[in-house]
Design goal:
Elements: E1 14-24, E2 27-37, E3 43-49, H1 56-59, E4 70-76, E5 83-89, E6 94-95, E7 106-107, E8 122-126, E9 134-136
Parallel strand pairs: 1-9
Antiparallel strand pairs: 1-2, 2-3, 4-5, 4-8, 6-7
Bound molecules: zinc ion (2 copies).
């Protein structure tokens, strides 16, 4: 069985790739650091937020994206304070989430957008669209 070049075993050679600033109400509330393997291009991420110290870069990344997954920022705006999470997801995946808006399972649709276009309380954004830029976490109704 032949293995595609990219997937041959190697030790990942992570290089710092990009940073994404996460904004809430005009303030940076967190940042996502992205490292990418120079050989196979998988990406590991680290979320830096106030009161949250993630040592992924030193300890090795817990999770890496793959050819058919993507790092997404999931935002819940159902409560006064925006909540967000950084997740590695595939199209068709269901996001485990509970909040005051008892929404049905939240599913990742094509193009890494929410499958339910009428969900006004949640959104997902692929970090790929915000490399070295600012991602505003606000949902449309908050803007
Ligand atoms: Zn690699
Ligand atoms: Zn929610």
């Amino acid at each position: 069985m032949s293995v595609p070049q990219q997937q041959k075993e190697h030790s990942h050679d992570f290089r710092y790739y990009a940073c994404i600033n996460l904004w809430d109400n005009g303030e940076t509330v967190a940042a996502v650091d992205v490292w990418r393997c120079s050989i196979c291009h998988v990406k590991g991420t680290e979320l830096r937020a106030q009161g949250l110290n993630n040592l992924a870069a030193e300890a090795g990344f817990r999770e890496l994206d793959g050819p058919d997954s993507n790092w997404l920022v999931f935002v819940c705006g159902a409560e006064e304070r925006l909540k967000f999470e950084l997740l590695n997801l595939h199209v068709g995946d269901t996001i485990k989430h509970e909040c005051v808006e008892k929404s049905p399972p939240i599913r990742v649709g094509s193009g890494y957008k929410l499958e339910d276009k009428n969900d006004r309380f949640h959104k997902i954004e692929s970090i790929e669209n915000y490399l070295n830029e600012t991602l505003d976490l606000a949902l449309p109704r908050h803007q």
